[in-house]
Design brief:
This protein has 2 domains: 215 residues, no CATH class; 106 residues, no CATH class. The radius of gyration is 24 Å and the shape is elongated. A 4-stranded antiparallel sheet has the order 1-2-7-4, sandwiched between helices. By secondary structure, it is of the alpha+beta class. Bound molecules: cobalamin and iron/sulfur cluster (2 copies). The site of one iron/sulfur cluster has 12 residues, from α9 and α11.
Length: 402
């Protein structure tokens, strides 16, 4: 079996004398094994290959999801729906897709983070360097190696383009989409990041994985905000991951208690999956958990200004929310904490420049110290002009719904 690019016979590299892209089907097991070895050497934990098409049912399900507005603020999902439905719609010349998975399993159970109400629970994918940055570089390296092996044009994607990564990964056989809609792997449980390489070369496709959920419904039942409308169907607008990361406005009252101390993402439906008994600890050192993102004390988060937020979370997924939304989330966690030591930190935010922050400071203060809230209320109403913030001081549950 060839072990390096130089050992691969030239004719297998699939280039014509002019170096044009290959259209020769690559059905060679040894060559596929070589690509897999390269992927492993670069730090990927799973690699499978599929054709660059998608069953119509996938695009139809996306349309049904969008028709109900379930994308919420994620307008980019709707704007790119036509290209998202199938790899060929995104890139008509694509023939095969090499789907990659990187394991980010941790030794600890993420549900442990929910036990200490004085700390903000950060989803385990976000407690480290941004996986987009880590995976993209490796995808580019692997794409270059594949191109050298078999020719063809290549493009790499990790959550950065309109690609439906989970249905693609399931079709390639990396795992199956569980009832929580995420990809579950028999080897790594819930904890795989996904990425893909599209190529104009045609490579023999692997077999899809079948669904192994059976009668289980643990993920559906555990969801704190009832985001699943049916098995395999999610209403993203109800998901804490969406609310804490993607949602730009105020978080509606109905979700606040259920959020508990989750301030960035949520791992509950992933963590309860029985297939995690096969999970392993991730081996990518660049994805090691960073101490400054490992469930920080809420008091620290409530003190952040823009500059200190940026400095602390540079290079991590958390930078996505910006300071105001992150502090908004932390104020909800503070309001849920029952921790009186947080009162001064919350009170310090009642005249913050951001209405998102002021509104949740008012809400949290009422929960933590109703007497102080009552005392401050009329003075705040004298100066507060934002209708949503006023509604929080007035405890007017009907006014603030978005
Ligand atoms: C948008 C998005 C979100 C949204 C929406 C979630 C979702 N399930 O769609 C929000 C912000 C909520 C989110 C949250 C999370 N995300 Co996200 N997200 C994405 C993104 C960018 C697109 C997913 C997408 O296409 N959604 C649209 C729906 C319709 O498609 P689908 O999820 O594949 O669902 C299929 C079926 O289940 C069914 N379906 C689903 N809902 C409905 C509704 C109706 C009415 C119908 C008829 C059908 C239907 O149809 C779909 C097609 O077959 C992908 C990256 C990518 N480019 O693929 C990452 C991605 C899915 N996210 C990822 C992760 C890690 C997460 C979180 C775990 C992060 C966290 N810990 O907080 C959570 C998990 C929440 C959950 N249970 O899904 C990983 C998942 C890896 C894996 N192993 O599966 C991805 C692949 C990113 C990556 N490159 O690794 N995410
Ligand atoms: S991530 Fe959390 S809130 Fe979102 S669907 Fe899963 S359990 Fe529900
Ligand atoms: S928890 Fe159960 S239903 Fe949900 S994905 Fe895992 S096996 Fe499937």
């Amino acid at each position: 079996m060839p072990t390096s690019i130089s050992e691969v016979p030239a004719q297998r590299k699939g280039r014509t004398a002019q170096g044009a892209a290959s259209v020769v089907p690559v059905m060679d097991r040894a060559l596929k094994d070589l690509i897999a070895q390269r992927a492993t050497a670069l730090g990927f934990d799973a690699m499978r290959i599929t054709s660059a098409d998608m069953p119509d049912s996938v695009g139809a399900a996306l349309d049904a999801f969008l028709a109900e507005g379930r994308e919420g603020d994620m307008a980019w999902l709707k704007d790119t729906a036509m290209r998202r439905g199938s790899p060929k719609a995104l890139w008509p010349d694509a023939r095969s897709v090499i789907v990659l998975g990187m394991n980010y399993g941790d030794a600890r159970d993420p549900l442990e983070s929910l036990k200490d109400a004085s700390r903000g629970a950060i989803s385990i994918y976000a407690k480290r360097a941004d996986y987009h940055d880590v995976i993209k570089g490796k995808l580019k390296q692997l794409a270059g190696q594949i191109q050298a092996l078999i020719g063809g044009e290549v493009k790499v994607f990790v959550d950065t383009a309109p690609v439906m990564e989970k249905p693609l990964a399931a079709k390639a056989g990396i795992g199956w989409q569980g009832k929580h809609t995420n990809l579950v792997s028999r080897d790594f449980g819930s904890w795989l990041f996904l990425g893909s390489i599209f190529t104009t070369a045609e490579i023999e496709a692997d077999e899809p994985e079948i669904d192994h959920c059976g009668a289980c419904r643990r993920c559906l039942d555990v969801c704190p905000t009832k985001a699943f409308t049916a098995p395999y169907e999610i209403d993203a607008r109800r998901c804490i991951s969406y609310l804490t990361i993607e949602h730009k406005g105020h978080i509606a009252r109905e979700f606040r208690s259920a959020m508990g101390n989750r301030i960035y993402g949520c791992d509950d439906c992933l963590a309860v999956c029985p297939w995690n008994k096969f999970a392993q600890i991730g081996r990518e050192t660049r994805l090691a958990i960073r101490p400054d993102t490992d469930d920080p004390p809420l008091a620290e988060i409530l003190r952040l200004d823009d500059a200190s937020f940026r400095a602390r979370f540079r290079g991590t997924p958390i930078k996505r929310t910006g300071r105001d939304r992150f502090v908004r989330n932390a104020l909800i966690a503070a309001g849920n904490s029952g921790d009186p030591s947080l009162v001064p930190h919350v009170e310090a935010l009642i005249d913050d420049v951001s209405p998102l922050v002021r509104a949740m400071a008012a809400w949290a203060l009422r929960r933590l110290d109703p007497e102080l809230s009552e005392t401050l209320c009329s003075a705040r109403l004298d100066v507060e002009t934002d209708a949503n913030v006023r509604a929080e001081w007035l405890d007017d549950g009907g006014a603030l719904t978005t």
